[in-house]
Amino acid sequence: MGKILNLAGIIKESIVDGPGIRMVVFVQGCPHHCKGCQNPQSWSFEGGEKGDIDIIINAAKRNPLLQGLTFSGGEPFCQADALADLGKMCHENGLNVVTFTGYTFEQLTEGFDQHPQWKRLLEQTDFLIDGPFILEQKSLMLHFRGSSNQRIIDVKKSLEAGKAVENYDI
Fold first, then answer.
1. How far apart are CA 104 and CA 128, in angstroms?
2. pLDDT tens across 87-102, in order?
3. Each residue of 95-142: pLDDT tens digit?
């Protein structure tokens, strides 16, 4: 039995939460409470359903159409330890990982000392969609993002460079 996530839900196949066909794992619990959030039911850290990461990766492996998994929420970095393990399993099985977060890349990297699990999850993330959703900057024309302040970040290149490296060609 693997680590347990507190889940708001899972979408088995999505084409709007990252490149290709993806399984989307929505975690329960979020401290950001963005005005206009599309998932306000995921804010509470209470409730949700328990999900074993071994069961999640096994379901993903059974779908040959999947390009990867997307971690969304809620706030994935509130459950970074288990999601880092799930991300590692994704990579071991040829799947990529996209993580949505209300934190900025800079906030996450500045928090590594206090939250070492954040670094583990970032290291298992291929692309990070960062920043809070800002209703006043909402646009339906943005690729994989809800508001124009949010960035698509190539995490591997960013960690190597020590600064956010954006990539909108995913």
1. 9
2. 999 999 999 999 999 9
3. 999 999 999 999 999 999 999 999 999 999 999 999 999 999 999 899
Considering only CA atoms, give the Rg of the chain.
Answer: 15
Rounded Cα distance, 62 and 23, in Å: 11
Beta bridge partners of 25: 10, 71
Q: Which residues of 102-133 are buried (b: 16+ CB within 10 A; e: fewer)?
A: bbbbeebbeeeeebebbbbbbebbbbbbbbbb
Would you state the structure tokens that stand for residue 146, as one six-digit string? 């809800």
pTM for the predicted model, two decimal places = 0.96
